[in-house]
Design a protein that fits this description.
Rossmann fold; 41% helix; alpha/beta; globular; 9 helices; 13% strand
Amino acid sequence: MAHSPTLAYHDPKFIDSDEGRPIRIVSEYLAPLRTFSECAVTATVVFFGSARARSGAVLGAYVDQATELARLVTEWGRSLPGGERLIVCSGGGPGIMEAANRGAALAGGRSIGLNIGLPQEQRPNPFITPELSFEFHYFFMRKLWFAHLAHALVTFPGGFGTLDELFEILTLAQTRKLDRSIPVLLYGSDYWKEVINFEALVRHGTIAAADLELFCFVDDPQAALAVLKRRIVLAPEPPSAPCFAKSRIPG
């Protein structure tokens, strides 16, 4: 009997090849899209922050505060008409990310983990809702999903990865690439004002003074929740599909 060749999309050697890269990239868009639609995930509050933060260490206080804020956000989201209108989303790893997922679990809610495979530090934490735990290979596809569903961003102290994710959202906001406003909260004013001199950027003319209004500083969970409640805009009725952030320019 003649041997039947393997279908290309069933052939691991092809899928893992350079030629198969576009398929791998689009898969990291379509697979989460399907899951979010099936799980009725329509809006998120994204938590960024260091994977290296640990209770009792230098950033230990922020771990506890991230847990509490995620708990408060989840309780609020579950109390809205339609139920669970806002879901906590993290990068899926340890530290601040794990704290956010833990806080959502403490409130009895679901939470998302957008994990990425790295040699060190990054393994999915145990508090992510299992069906909402994702593994990415491409940083840019992971960042797309952070922005795509976000209705607010809370950035706790972190390093290169946190800065990269933060400035991705700030750049989209500054350039008005998105069709909705995404409030950005910088949690821990002492940290952020030491690490980034935003006023110096204005003084040197590299950003406008008005760009400083794209974010605000917060220092405790209750104050952060108050800002989120004031600035997040949701539709009166729960949507039937995810509320994607769309580009102002077609395409």
